[in-house]
Hints:
Elements: H1 3-32, H2 40-55, H3 61-67, H4 71-82
Amino acid sequence: xxxxxxxxxxxxxxxxxxxxxxxxxxxxxxxxxxxxxxxxxxxxxxxxxxxxxxxxxxxxxxxxxxxxxxxxxxxxxxxxxxxxxxxx
Length: 88
């Protein structure tokens, strides 16, 4: 693998990760106080709608589905949920 390919993959993963982190934050807020009568799929659809409203096109669902149940992702999200980064 060339340095250029490695750099490209790192850049792409950074982009994917940033977007699925934004989506996860929205979904977590919805799941924390779900609208009455909502099931899991409805909450995901609501999160997608909110993501699109604030961030544009949501094209990362396949990536999110691949990582959301992995132990590493769960540990990172738990850490982020417990210690959110400050936004200025």
